[in-house]
Write a structure and sequence with these properties.
This is DUF2520 domain-containing protein. There is one protein chain. The protein contains 14 helices and 8 strands. The chain has 290 residues and is an alpha/beta fold. It folds into 2 domains: 167 residues, NAD(P)-binding Rossmann-like Domain (Rossmann fold), CATH 3.40.50; 110 residues. The chain starts with a strand and ends with a helix.
Length: 290
């Protein structure tokens, strides 16, 4: 069985390591980290491999795979260290960043490693939860053909959906799209909770009210696309409702009102595309004058 080295004992490394070990995709050779206690904890969760630090000898050999699951800013330093600590020839080395390209892995590639970026498009908070909810997660791949040929079937074996990105894809913009869809969604829900709090609703009641429409709205977007899924006062051209809401929000929090207005202007463009010919001039005036 091919061996896997995991550099970085965080949630991504723990989740992928545990799944790849349990499905007998890789033999876990070792878990490497700076903090021995955190690394030992990660190893215990994965339940395979040795606990190692950057001062230990890494017995990597041709045919092994190395996962670099550290923070984005640490990838360069880890790649440089690995290029000196082992002979990279014959290794497959990948990092798990959505935003970083292959440039940090270039020292390894130049010395004979096949390199890739593997990005699980998923929020990672608690590895114990993530291993239970990983089925069907899209994992994007970008890199050398030999690395992709190793990683794509490994991902499929743990229930993921591997998607190979074209080489020309700008990973900064690719990852920004994921941030909009995931991280900024949390900010939008928080904005909704703040509006409800100003209206006199407690958070539990607000989440109870919003949960069905959040799920239904997201399902509609995924089924039909944002334009056709659009509903609400802007989609109807209801300028009076929007103006009243802007005034109420601004009386409570002007920054929140500014967010409402900016999103309203973006939504106006969707409304134009959904219903060509709909008179949106009054709405334009409301959204522009505040």
């Amino acid at each position: 069985m091919a061996r896997l080295w995991i550099i970085g004992p965080g949630a991504v490394g723990q989740t992928l390591g545990r799944l790849l070990a349990e499905r007998d995709v890789f033999e876990i050779a070792g878990v490497i980290g700076r903090d021995p206690a955190a690394t030992a904890q990660a190893r215990n969760f994965i339940d395979r491999g040795d606990v190692l630090t950057f001062a230990d000898r890494i017995d990597a050999r041709p045919g092994d795979t190395v996962m670099i699951s550290v923070s984005d800013g640490a990838i360069d330093g880890v790649a440089d260290w690995l290029a000196q600590a082992v002979d990279p020839a014959g290794l497959v080395v990948f990092h798990c960043s959505g935003a970083r390209d292959l440039a940090p892995l270039e020292p390894l590639r130049q010395r004979g490693a096949a390199v890739a970026a593997l990005h699980p498009v998923k929020a990672f908070a608690d590895p114990a939860r993530e291993i239970l909810t990983f089925e069907g997660v899209v994992c994007t791949l970008q890199g050398d053909e030999a690395a992709v040929a190793t990683l794509a079937p490994a991902l499929a074996a743990i229930g993921a959906d591997p998607v190979v990105l074209p080489e020309a894809v700008d990973r900064r913009l690719y990852h920004a799209g994921a941030v909009f869809a995931s991280n900024y969604l949390a900010a939008l829900v928080q904005a909704a909770l703040e509006c409800h709090a100003a209206a006199g609703l407690d958070a539990a009641t607000s989440l109870r009210i919003l949960s069905p429409i959040l799920r239904d709205g997201l399902d509609a977007i995924l089924d039909r696309g944002p334009v056709q899924a659009l509903t609400g006062p802007i989609a109807r051209g209801d300028a009076a409702a929007v103006a009243a809401q802007v005034m109420a929000i601004a009386a409570h929090d002007r920054e929140l009102a500014g967010l409402y207005l900016e999103l309203g202007r973006q939504t106006l463009e969707l409304a134009r595309r959904k219903t060509p010919g709909l008179d949106l001039s009054a709405l334009e005036a409301v959204l522009a004058k505040h």
